[in-house]
Structures are given as C-alpha cells and as structure tokens.
Description:
Strand order of the largest sheet: 2-1-3-4-5
Mean pLDDT: 88
Largest sheet: 5 strands, parallel
CATH architecture: 3-Layer(aba) Sandwich
Shape: globular
Low-confidence stretches: none
Helix content: 40-55%
Distance between the termini: 19 Å
Radius of gyration: 13 Å
Number of helices: 5
Amino acid sequence: MKVLIIDDEPLIRRSLMRAFESRGHQVFLAENGLTGYEAWLRENPNLIFLDMLMPVLAGPEFLQKIGNNKNCPVILMSAFSGQYDHKKAQEMGADQFMAKPFNDIFAVVEMAERLEQTEQKISSS
C-alpha cells in the first residue's frame, strides 16, 4: 500500500512512516498541504493521513482542492479533538478522524489497513 502522510510535525511524520514501513508499506511524506497535494498528484497513494491545521494549505483546504477526485481514503488528524470528530471530518470530505497524539501507533496502522481494504472492496464492486 502507498501511504501519503501530510503533517507539519516531524515527529508525527516519522512515527507513522516507521510504523507503516515496518509492515511493508511504501510511505511518502509532506510537511504541508501544498507539498502534500503535489505528492498526491505524483504518487497516487492508496491512503492519506492528513493533519487538520498546517501552514500553507490546511487539511480542509487540501480536501477542497482534491474535491471529487479523491481516489483513496483520507484520515484527518488533529490534536484539537474537542473541536473535531468523525462526523465533522466526513462533512469536510475525509473518511475517518483520529485524535493526536496516538496511544498505539500500530493500532492506527491496523485501522488504516482495514479502511483501505474496505475501500478497495467497494471500488471493485
């Protein structure tokens, strides 16, 4: 699976990258929504982890930019879990919401793998 991680926090990018790579996935990193958008166009990922608040192009703006061309699940992340939740993430165009920091990074990876597999089944139907 090709995973694109878009987050302005280096620790989050590295942690997710290591967890996904340890399970054999290919990972692409972007430090803001604009470089993330460019990577999305270039790499055609199977899954996107997208931070809510970033400089240059924030998560909601990224989702607006890709619009109906979204071809993979998007997991929206935020440390401000009191302001955002699963319903709000879906209203913005994401498939899932995750609060940061993560308690168990490998549980996050397993959930993401299940989400991507479900999306593949739906797309092939």
